[in-house]
Design the sequence.
């Protein structure tokens, strides 16, 4: 069983829709949960990170962590064509060093104008 | 604000040739990383340097060497390139021990023929 599972998509939604992107994980040691956005032929860009459980909001983006279910989500409200990208979840535990950082394989999101 | 800068952006090599990917960061970060990203495989850690003067193997170190030249620079060398090393390479950096806030460069596209 892989440590982090993420549906590769593609996920195609119309402009203005609410988008839900998700990851599941198996390692209960993970403490920090991150979301990266990667445009085509560009490097991953850190969108936001959350420590432990709960919600974190930043503009149109909301990150949600449910540690009891080992499930994290990224919600995008009022989606725009410029949100079309691959979204990678990542997880890390303090003290794990670089080896403690694990990425999902990414979900390809397409926002249709 | 340049962040993490990688060179070259594109390179074609013949099997058996050697080359070095250069990376520099201007964020005064202690930790630096080299990842490769392949379709269906996600991001995989090649080598990392927790601080100046130290380097450690990641998940896929075979066929690569690294040098942490100083706090700013971390290079990745392919001594004898193989077609299996055709990939996109990303350099990244973070504060010491902060796997939750890693910043990536724009990537280096390498093709080995």
Sequence:
């Amino acid at each position: 069983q892989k440590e982090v599972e993420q549906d590769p998509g593609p996920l195609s939604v119309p402009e203005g829709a609410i988008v839900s992107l998700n990851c599941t994980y198996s390692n209960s040691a993970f403490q920090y949960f991150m979301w990266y956005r990667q445009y085509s032929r560009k490097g991953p860009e850190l969108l936001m990170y959350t420590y432990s459980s709960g919600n974190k909001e930043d503009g149109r983006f909301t990150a949600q962590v449910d540690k009891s279910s080992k499930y994290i989500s990224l919600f995008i409200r009022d989606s725009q064509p410029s949100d079309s990208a691959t979204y990678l979840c990542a997880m890390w535990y303090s003290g794990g060093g670089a080896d403690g950082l694990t990425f999902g394989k990414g979900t390809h999101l397409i926002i249709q104008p | 604000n340049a962040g993490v800068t990688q060179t070259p952006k594109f390179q074609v090599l013949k099997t058996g040739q050697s080359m070095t990917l250069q990376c520099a960061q201007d964020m005064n970060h202690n930790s630096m990383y080299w990842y490769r990203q392949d379709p269906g495989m996600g991001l995989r850690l090649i080598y990392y340097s927790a601080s100046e003067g130290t380097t450690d193997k990641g998940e896929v170190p075979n066929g690569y060497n690294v040098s942490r030249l100083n706090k700013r620079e971390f290079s990745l060398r392919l001594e004898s390139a193989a077609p299996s090393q055709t990939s996109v390479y990303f350099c990244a950096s973070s504060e010491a021990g902060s796997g939750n806030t890693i910043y990536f460069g724009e990537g280096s596209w390498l093709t080995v023929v």
